[in-house]
Design brief:
- By secondary structure, the protein is mostly helical.
- The chain is built from 15 helices and no strands.
- Helix 4 packs across helix 7, helix 5 crosses helix 7 and helix 10 packs across helix 14.
- The longest helix has 42 residues.
Length: 306
């Protein structure tokens, strides 16, 4: 009977695996085609691009495109994005982590209602808030300032950040929190010494997601930034393409300058990102880390059933 079934199989398991990986390679080539086209265009001169198009190999590699794009205006846009992202991401994560920890483990009145109210920020479209935000920012004198744009980014990032961090903090065993409280540890001490170190994968994942979203944000920057010297990269690239509509080689070089930093950050923290999106790992790993931290104080860690 088994031999009959085996004869009916069209392909052996090895061939199925080979076809699967072949399909993955073809899918990767399709997804990487825009990136390859972008790189080829950035390495050509204007004449080569006009004659041979974007899909041909460059006749000669022209690295000067990157320098010219940088000096033309990308340098200013790049550092504006670095400043906004550099302030927004850490400040936002601190606020989101504190709020998520309080809503998860500090059982106070209306905690669930407050969490629901925060999640409303994920439901309300950004476009509905633009008019009242414009009036508010104008009244505060924060229109056309990087400070005002950073505050807006922090506010819009809080709902998602609280949702991610709360989901991770819920995996921390309650017994650890109770033991720390019995030892006289304050709530901030529990957050800083126990919960936050355990949530490092989630923090790194949130840093990547938040950093990419801030780095690529366009709508708020377009509305609240008026001066050319304050433009961030996405908004600056639009102006760049308008100014150099026929010089696609410099535009492609400018896009690569904007993309490469965030890709390198993602590749460097990739393993933390995967762990953070996995929901916090196993409870045994959390207890093992807690036991090591407890042992560093010279005492034996208590055993709890979770």
């Amino acid at each position: 009977m088994n031999q009959t079934i085996a004869k009916k199989e069209i392909l052996p398991p090895q061939s199925k695996v080979a076809l699967f990986y072949l399909a993955l390679v073809l899918a990767a080539l399709i997804w990487f085609t825009p990136v390859i086209t972008l790189v080829l265009t950035a390495l050509k001169d204007a004449g080569d691009f006009a004659r041979n198009g974007a899909f041909s190999l460059p006749k000669s590699i022209r690295w000067a495109n990157f320098g010219e794009a940088w000096e033309t205006g990308v340098k200013n846009y790049f550092w504006n994005s670095v400043i906004v992202t550099g302030f927004k991401v850490p400040i936002g994560i601190v606020i989101e982590s504190l709020a998520a920890f309080a809503l998860t483990h500090m059982h106070f009145k209306w905690a669930d209602r407050i969490f629901t109210y925060i999640l409303i920020g994920l439901i309300v479209p950004m476009q509905m808030t633009l008019v009242p935000l414009t009036l508010l920012m104008n009244g505060l004198g924060l229109i056309d300032t990087l400070v005002g744009l950073t505050i807006l980014y922090i506010g819009f990032g809080v709902p998602f950040g609280v949702l991610v961090m709360r989901g991770f903090f819920r995996t921390v065993p309650v017994a650890i929190i109770e033991a720390a409280r019995l030892d006289g540890c304050s709530w901030f001490g529990i957050f800083y010494r126990i919960a936050l170190p355990l949530a490092l994968p989630a923090v790194v994942s949130l840093c990547i997601l938040d950093g990419v979203a801030t780095w690529n944000e366009f709508i708020l920057a377009q509305i609240f930034l008026r001066s050319d010297e304050l433009r961030t990269l996405p908004l600056g690239l639009v102006q760049f393409s308008t100014q150099f509509a026929t010089q696609y080689n410099q535009l492609a070089a400018a896009v690569l300058i904007a993309v490469v930093p965030i890709v390198l950050v993602f590749l460097f923290f990739q393993r933390y990102f995967v762990a953070g999106m996995g929901g916090g790992g196993e409870i045994e790993q959390i207890l093992s880390l807690y036991s090591r931290r407890w042992a560093s104080t010279g005492r034996n860690a208590p055993h709890y059933k979770i």
